[in-house]
Design a protein that fits this description.
There is one protein chain. With about 450 residues, this protein is of the alpha/beta class. The protein folds into two domains: about 200 residues, Rossmann fold; about 170 residues, 3-Layer(aba) Sandwich (Rossmann fold). It contains 13 helices and 14 strands. Helix 9 runs parallel beside helix 10.
């Protein structure tokens, strides 16, 4: 039996009450459904709800009522998929996060009726939810209170709806976390939808993280785009309101290569080329594609093993040490008559000044390649890189948000007044084969 599966009570071996009176068949189903909906959750007979968990952070619940009039089509199935918090339900307390398993109510009074209607029309009902507050690791006392509360809440929700449905909840930042399509892939596999087929154009995903003004994110919008089904907000789907256009929604497909890369020309037999750009802006890829073929040597603090990748853990002395090591290696290459590329962020004038001073001392020119990738694109790059081994030849790890915030805080636009011979701007454009483009072109953050 899967972990968390609810055991059904064994049938008694003796009669415990007189046989019930025979009732009219035509009214029994409606009365049962009506009584089940309006009865308090504590008085309901638990339906057959099963739970299981996957190692990479996915909790799956399945509700299969014994008596149901819903018959799913055997071919080309329609799916009605929903986010949970802020879409199907909200807190009774008014708090942003629920106080406990009972702190919830329907997002709107019409939600349960609409979901039942979809089920009766042959839609397969499923919930996809990010639940980062849930941990699948047992605490000191062997319990997992957040998981227990989540199961109680979803058991009550599914019992009230009383229809066949399932829930997939991502608990970690793995391939299952929206907007990544891992939960959808697991759902398709669980129900053999790759064989049965899904009517994608007539299916729908409803979620509140749509990238609208005031939304905390666009993960639901991105999830639907990755999956390939139409997307609606709760206001559109349940209330019939007009859609609100997302403002400034980041679309990775806009950065798929359509033009030749900006060409960089080597000007001198011996020179320093200084990169300036955020983590994830494409600096290392640009080096391998454009400067390594021209004979430049690369100086990179990660390769030199002197950087602690989480900026929160870097002390001022460690930063000085890593800079000194980079300067030492750069000097050694230059004294051996080899031009170098300083493949670090080099965010501000103070950092860049160390290399202009070295260039003056050796009487050689120093040039800048300025990477113009916007912050959301850099975060996207770093996330895709860390999650896909085939796109991560240097085995870079996932970067914390503070890495990007720190670069933004320190950033000063490079100018010729700092002593550079020229500044070469590089807008980002992804270059790769069709499979790499497919992966990179999905929403990841």
């Amino acid at each position: 039996m899967a972990p968390g599966t609810v055991k059904r009570t064994a049938s008694p071996t003796r009669s415990i009450s007189p046989p019930p009176l025979r009732r009219k068949v035509e009214s029994s189903v409606n009365k049962k459904a009506m009584n089940s909906f309006f009865a308090p959750t504590s008085q309901k007979k638990p339906g057959p709800i099963t739970w299981r968990a996957l190692e990479k952070g996915l909790v799956i619940g399945k509700h299969s009522p014994e008596a149901t009039s819903t018959t799913l089509p055997s071919k080309n199935r329609k799916v009605a998929a929903f986010d949970l918090d802020g879409t199907l339900i909200k807190t009774k307390s008014g708090n942003k996060f629920a106080k406990g398993a009972d702190d919830w109510k329907w997002w709107d009074a019409g939600v349960p009726g609409k979901v039942r209607e979809l089920s009766s029309e042959g839609f397969q009902i499923v919930i996809f939810s990010n639940q980062s507050k849930i941990s699948l690791k047992k605490g000191k006392d062997g319990d997992m209170p957040a998981l227990s509360n989540f199961k109680k809440k979803l058991t009550a929700l599914m019992t009230q709806l009383d229809l066949p449905m399932s829930v997939y909840a991502s608990t970690e930042a793995t391939e299952y976390r929206k907007p990544r399509p891992g939960m959808w892939a697991e759902f398709v596999d669980d129900y053999d939808l790759d064989v049965v087929g899904v009517d994608m154009s007539n299916s729908v995903y409803v979620g509140d993280a749509a990238g609208r003004p005031g939304d905390f994110a666009a993960t639901d919008h991105g999830f639907a785009a990755n999956v390939g089904i139409p997307f609606k907000t709760p206001e559109e789907f349940f209330l019939g309101q007009d859609p609100v256009e997302a403002s400034g929604l980041f679309d990775p497909k806009e950065y798929i290569e359509t033009k030749p890369e900006t060409e960089f020309q080597r000007k001198h037999p011996l020179e320093i080329v200084l990169f300036c750009g955020s983590p994830g802006s494409g600096k290392s890829t640009y080096f391998w594609n454009n400067l390594e073929p021209l004979g430049y040597e690369r100086v990179n603090q990660d390769i030199l093993k002197s950087v602690r990748r989480s900026i929160m853990l870097q002390s001022s002395s460690l930063i000085v040490q890593q800079r000194q090591k980079c300067l030492k290696v750069a000097r050694e290459f230059l004294e051996a008559k080899k031009s170098v590329v300083i493949d670090n962020t080099n965010a501000n004038q103070e950092t860049r000044e160390h290399y202009t001073t070295l260039a003056k001392e050796l009487s050689i020119p120093v040039r800048v390649i300025h990477f113009l990738s916007p912050p959301e694109l850099c975060k996207h790059n770093a996330t895709v890189r860390a999650a896909n081994k085939n796109l991560n030849p240097e085995s870079r790890i996932s970067l914390p948000g503070i890495a990007f915030a720190d670069y933004k805080r320190r950033y000063q636009e490079p100018t010729l007044d700092e002593g550079f011979e020229d500044i070469h701007p590089v807008p980002f454009r992804f270059v790769g084969d069709e499979e790499a483009k497919r992966i990179w072109g999905q929403y990841w953050i």
